[in-house]
Amino acid sequence: MKKFLMCLIVLTLLSGLIFSYGLQVKIPDASTTWYKGGEYQIVWTSDGCQTSRFKIRLFKDSISQSNLKEMKVTDDNKTSWEWKVSNSLETGKYIIRVKTYENLCVGNSKVFWIKDNLSVGTGLAQGMIKKIKIIAPNYTSAWKEGTSNIIKWKDPNTVKQTMKIRLFNEKNQYIYEIKTVLASNVKKISVGRARSDNISKINWVIPKNKFTIPGFFKIKMISVTGSVLGESDKFRILGETDKWDFGD
Fold it and tell me: Which candidate, 33, 40, 21, places its Cα nearest to that of 99?
C-alpha cells in the first residue's frame, strides 16, 4: 500500500512538471494595467511545446471555471496575440492563461489590473489613448537585408512612452525585436526651418539570416505594458540579390 501511494505521488508530481514545461506568459506581468476598449499584446514562450495553436483564457481574480470571462483560440502556433479589452468587463484583478491546443503545456500570467477607460489628455503614459502613425515603412517600401533604413513615426501624444519596436510577419507572428526606444532618447526630425516635435525616427540595419525572406512584414510599436501603440503598412523585406518593382 505504501509503495502504491509513493508511486501515485511521484506520478502526480511528474505529470505536473510535464504539464507546465516550457510555457511562460511574459506579458502581461505584475506591473501591467489594461484599460477597457484598448488593444494589448499578450506574449509568451513555448520552448519544447509542440502544438498547432494555442488557447488563451482570461480569468478574474483567480483561475477557476466560474471566474472565466473570455476565451480565444489562436490561428496558428505563434507566441503573441493582440487582445481587445471588452468594455463590459468589471474593473479588477485578472490573470491570463495560455495553453497548447492539446492541453500538454500551460502557463499563467502574473495578476494584473483592468481598469475603466482613461480620459483623453490624462494618463497617456499608461493607457492607449491616441494611436501612433508609422510613416515609414509604408506599402511601397521594399527594404533589403544588410541595408540601413529609417523607421519614422508621428506621435500625437504629449506624454512620450518607452516602447518596443517589433517586426511581425504577414501572419501577424512576432519574429524579431528591432529596438527598445526610451522616451527621452527619441530623435526628432526638423522639417524645413520649423522643428516638428511629434515626428521621430530611428535607423535600422536589417540583419542577415535572422528571419525568412523575401516576404511581407509589418512593424508594430508596443508599450511596456503590452499595448499596441502603432502599426505600419505591410511592406517587403528582400534578400541582397532579390529584385522587386512596385506593382508586382
Answer: 21
